[in-house]
Design brief:
Blueprint (H helix, E strand, L loop, with lengths): L7 H9 L14 H6 L20 H11 L4 H11 L4 H6 L7 H21 L6 H14 L1 H21 L2 H12 L5 E4 L15 E5 L4 E5 L7 E5 L7 E10 L2 E11 L12 E5 L11 E6 L2 E4 L9 E2 L5 E2 L8 H30 L25 H39 L8 H32 L11 H8 L9 H20 L14 H6 L13 H30 L2 H32 L6 H21 L1 H5 L9 H17 L2 H6 L18 H9 L12 H10 L4
Parallel strand pairs: 1-5, 2-5
Antiparallel strand pairs: 2-3, 3-9, 4-8, 5-6, 7-8, 10-11
Helix pairs in contact: 6-8, 7-8, 8-9, 10-11, 10-12, 11-12, 11-17, 11-18, 11-20, 12-13, 12-14, 12-17, 14-16, 14-17, 16-17, 16-18, 17-18, 18-20
C-alpha cells in the first residue's frame, strides 16, 4: 500500500517499484489487448500475411529514449501499473459500437476514476505525472480528457488562480474531491473568440450584497460548455460586470446550476445538453440561460479585480495574470496534435508494411510469388512518410513550447505572490505568439494527417475498426476550441508584423523573433544548389525556412502599407491581407519547429546513425513544405530559382524511399501500447485475423435483423402490407 502522508516524489518511486524497468519490453505489453479481442476462437485464421521485417531495435530504443527525455522506463512503469490493470481504462479504448448514452456513461466513469486514482496515489499535483496522464488519456479517451480539462484545469484552476481566499476555502477542495462538478461557461451561442462582445450580465445589487446574473436573449445563452449538459453542478460564468451604472467588461463568477439534493436545475437556470456532435460524444456539452439568478458578491472571483460592499470597483493591478490558463490550453492542444499524428501514422505504417496489393515487382527484394507491399509503392511512401517527419517535428516543437510555458507560469506564480514584481514581458510576448500559431498550425496539420492516413488504408480505413475515422472526428474539435485557428494565426501574425515594423525602423528586436533583425541579409540570401543532393543539407533547409518566414511577413507589411495609403483604413488593409498573414504565421511556426528539430538532433545521447536518420527526417519535413509552397520562394528575386523546383521534388522522393526501410522502426519508437491502437494496427500486424475477431464481437452480427419479420419476410414471401 502507498502511504498518503508520504511526499509525492516518494510515492512515485513506490509506484514505479512495482515493475522492474529492466524487465519491460521497449514497446508495452499487448497481453491485455490480446485477451480483449479474444473470443475463444483460434488465434489465427490463415497464414495470410507476412509480419514486417524492417524493425531496428537499436534505432527504436534510441529514438524512444530521445522522445521520452530518457524517462522511458518510468513512463512504462506508470502506464503499466496505472492504466493496464484497470478494466475501465481497457474498455474505454473500444467505443466503436457504443451509442451516445453508453459513451457518456463510460466517459464519466473514466473521468471519475482518473481523479480518484490520482488522489489515492498522491499524484494529483505532480506535474510530471499529470503530463504522463494527459499524453495517455488524450489517446485513450478524448472525451474524458476534455472532461478532465474542463473540471480540473479550467474550473478548479480558475478557482485556484483567480479566486480570492474565502472562495477557495469554500469550493476548491470540494471541486478537487468531486463533491461538486464544475464547468467553464465562457462561450455564448453567438460569441466564441470575441470575448469582449459577450452579453451575459452580472449586475451588482448593493442592497442585498449580491450579483444578479441574466441572459439578455437567446443569442447570449451559454453554449458548447463542456460537462454542463447533464453533469455540472456549478459553473465559472463569464459575464459583464455592471455596478453603479458602469459596465466594467467581462469578469468571472461562481454560479450554482443544479440542486445538490436531486440534481434538478435551480430556480432561474434553464439548462440542457446540446445533442450530437461530430465527435467526443462521451462528454455532455450543454447550454444555459439565466433569469435573475442571484449569487453572493463573494462568488465573484476577486483575487485581482474586486467589488466592495458599497459597489466600488477596483481593477486588477496585473491584468496579464489572466494569460496563464489561456496559453496553457493552446500548449495542450499542440502536444495533443503531435500525439495524434504519431498514432495515425503508426496505424498506416503497420498496415502498409503488411498489406499486399498486385504483383507489381517494384522492389528488388520482393519475392516474385508474393504481391507487392503497399509501402513499396512510391505514392504510398510520398503520402505517409512525410507524416512521420511531421510527427517528430511537432513533438520537438511542442515540448519546447511546453518548457517555455512552464517558465512563464512560474513567473506568473511569483508575480501573484509579489506586490512589486514585474513580469518578463518579452517572455509573455514570445509564448503568446508561439502558442497561438503552434496550436493552429499543429492541429490543422494533425487533422490533415489523420484523414490522409485513413484514406491510405483503402476500404479498411472506412471501417470504424481502423480507428482513424473516430480519431479524426474526435480531434476535429481541436481546430476550434482554445481559439479558432484562423483567429490564432492572425494573433501570431500581428506579433510578427509588430516586430518586423520595429526592425525596419532600426530598433533591435529581442527574444523569439530576433531573427528579424537580419531581415535585409535574409531577403538577399540565395540558394546555389546545383544537384538534388544539395537539398539534403539541414543547414540549407534552415536557411530556406528562415527566408520563407522573413519574406512572407515582409510582403504582408508592404501590402498593408499600400492598402492603408489606398483606403485610409488600417482595418480594411488588414482584412485585405488576412490570407497572406495566415501564411506568414504558418511560415514562422515551420521555421521555429525546424530549429527545435535541429536542437534535438544535436542532443549528445544520439549516436551517428541516429543523427543521420533524424537529419533525413528534418530534411524531409522541410522539403515537403518547400515543395508545397514553392511559389513564395521563387517569386521576384527569390531564394530559389525555377530549376530548383524539380530538384526539390527529386530530393523529397529520394528521402521518402531512403526512409522506407526505417519507417516502421520510426513509428515503433513512439512506444504506443496496443491498448491505444485499433484492431487493424496491433503490434503483431495480424490485420485480417484481428479485424475478423473484432467484427465477430459486433452485437447481433450473425443474427436475423430486427426488421426481418416486419419488412424482409413479407417481401420475400410476396405478401403486401
Amino acid at each position: 500500500s502507498i502511504s498518503h502522508s508520504a511526499p509525492s516524489q516518494q510515492r512515485l518511486q513506490v509506484l514505479l517499484s512495482h515493475i522492474n524497468p529492466a524487465s519491460l519490453d521497449p514497446v508495452l505489453s499487448t497481453s491485455i489487448t490480446s485477451s480483449a479481442f479474444s473470443n475463444g476462437k483460434p488465434s489465427s485464421l490463415v497464414n495470410n500475411h507476412t509480419p514486417p521485417k524492417h524493425i531496428s531495435q537499436s534505432l527504436t530504443h534510441q529514438l524512444t529514449s530521445l522522445l521520452d527525455n530518457n524517462k522511458t522506463a518510468e513512463k512504462q512503469a506508470f502506464f503499466s501499473k496505472y492504466f493496464h490493470e484497470n478494466s475501465i481504462f481497457v474498455k474505454s479504448r473500444d467505443i466503436f459500437d457504443l451509442d451516445t448514452k453508453q459513451q457518456k456513461e463510460l466517459c464519466t466513469k473514466v473521468f471519475i476514476q482518473v481523479v480518484k486514482d490520482l488522489k489515492d496515489i498522491g499524484m494529483e499535483n505532480n506535474e510530471q505525472v499529470t503530463w504522463y496522464l494527459f499524453e495517455y488519456l488524450a489517446l485513450m479517451s478524448p472525451s474524458a480528457t476534455t472532461l478532465y480539462g474542463a473540471h480540473m484545469i479550467l474550473f478548479a484552476g480558475a478557482l485556484d488562480k483567480q479566486g480570492h481566499e474565502s472562495l477557495r476555502e469554500r469550493y476548491l477542495e470540494k471541486a478537487r474531491n468531486l463533491e461538486i462538478w464544475g464547468c467553464y461557461a465562457m462561450t455564448e451561442i453567438s460569441r466564441g473568440s470575441y470575448i469582449r462582445g459577450m452579453q451575459t450580465t452580472a449586475d451588482f445589487d448593493p442592497e442585498h450584497d449580491e450579483f444578479v446574473i441574466n441572459t439578455p436573449g437567446h443569442n447570449a445563452m451559454k453554449f458548447w460548455i463542456g460537462g454542463m449538459g447533464f453533469d455540472a453542478t456549478h459553473a465559472v460564468v463569464f459575464a459583464r460586470l455592471r455596478t453603479k451604472g458602469r459596465d466594467y467588461g467581462i469578469h468571472s463568477f461562481l454560479v450554482p446550476l443544479r440542486s445538490m439534493e436531486d440534481h434538478s436545475p435551480l430556480p432561474g437556470v434553464q439548462i440542457g445538453d446540446i445533442g450530437e456532435k461530430q465527435g467526443r460524444n462521451g462528454i455532455s456539452n450543454g447550454y444555459c440561460l439565466f433569469t435573475n439568478v442571484r449569487v453572493p458578491r463573494d462568488n465573484m472571483l476577486m483575487r485581482w479585480a474586486q467589488v466592495s460592499r458599497e459597489g466600488d470597483y477596483t481593477p486588477s493591478p496585473k491584468p496579464e495574470l489572466a494569460y496563464g490558463a489561456l496559453i496553457s490550453g493552446r500548449v495542450a492542444v499542440s502536444l495533443c496534435s503531435s500525439i495524434e499524428i504519431k498514432r495515425a501514422v503508426t496505424v498506416a505504417m503497420r498496415y502498409s508494411h503488411t498489406r499486399r496489393q498486385f504483383h507489381s515487382k517494384v522492389s528488388k527484394t520482393q519475392d516474385p510469388k508474393e504481391e507487392t507491399l503497399l509501402i513499396d509503392y512510391q505514392t504510398h511512401q510520398a503520402r505517409l512518410i512525410p507524416h512521420i517527419a511531421t510527427a517528430y517535428a511537432q513533438h520537438f516543437g511542442a515540448h519546447n513550447l511546453q518548457a517555455m510555458n512552464n517558465k512563464f507560469l512560474k513567473e506568473l506564480d511569483n508575480l501573484a505572490t509579489s506586490s512589486s514584481g514585474e513580469l518578463n514581458r518579452q517572455l509573455l510576448a514570445d509564448v503568446h505568439a508561439l502558442a497561438a500559431g503552434m496550436k493552429a498550425t499543429f492541429s490543422q496539420c494533425a487533422a490533415d494527417a489523420i484523414l490522409d492516413c485513413r484514406q491510405s488504408l483503402g476500404g479498411h480505413g472506412y471501417s470504424a475498426y481502423s480507428g482513424l475515422a473516430q480519431y479524426f472526428n474526435d480531434f476535429a474539435a481541436s481546430m476550434t476550441f482554445e481559439g479558432e485557428n484562423t483567429v490564432l494565426f492572425q494573433q501570431t501574425a500581428r506579433s510578427l508584423l509588430k516586430v518586423f515594423t520595429k526592425c525596419v525602423k532600426g530598433d533591435e528586436a529581442e527574444g523569439l523573433l530576433s531573427f528579424l533583425n537580419e531581415y535585409k541579409q535574409t531577403l538577399q540570401d540565395k540558394c546555389e544548389a546545383l544537384e538534388f543532393s544539395d537539398f539534403l543539407d539541414a543547414s540549407l533547409m534552415l536557411r530556406a525556412l528562415k527566408y520563407r518566414s522573413t519574406k512572407t511577413i515582409a510582403d504582408c507589411a508592404k501590402q498593408i502599407k499600400e492598402y492603408v495609403i489606398a483606403t485610409g483604413s488600417q482595418s480594411v488593409a488588414w482584412n485585405r491581407t488576412q490570407y497572406d498573414l495566415v501564411n506568414a504565421a504558418k511560415a514562422f511556426i515551420d521555421y521555429y519547429t525546424a530549429q527545435c528539430f535541429i536542437k534535438a538532433i544535436n542532443e549528445p545521447q544520439n549516436d551517428p546513425s541516429t543523427k543521420a536518420v533524424l537529419t533525413s527526417l528534418l530534411n524531409l519535413f522541410a522539403l515537403q513544405i518547400l515543395d508545397r509552397d514553392i511559389g513564395s520562394m521563387i517569386s521576384g528575386d527569390g531564394f530559389l530559382k525555377s530549376n530548383h523546383v524539380s530538384l526539390i521534388r527529386r530530393a523529397f522522393l529520394h528521402l521518402c524511399e531512403e526512409l522506407k526501410e526505417d519507417s516502421l522502426s520510426l513509428c515503433e519508437a513512439f512506444n504506443l501500447s496496443d491498448n491505444l491502437m485499433p484492431p487493424v494496427a496491433l503490434k503483431d500486424c495480424k490485420i485480417y485475423d484481428n479485424l475478423f475477431e473484432r467484427v465477430q464481437q459486433v452485437p447481433g452480427h450473425d443474427q436475423r435483423p430486427p426488421y426481418y419479420e416486419s419488412i424482409l419476410k413479407p417481401m420475400f414471401s410476396g405478401k403486401k402490407e
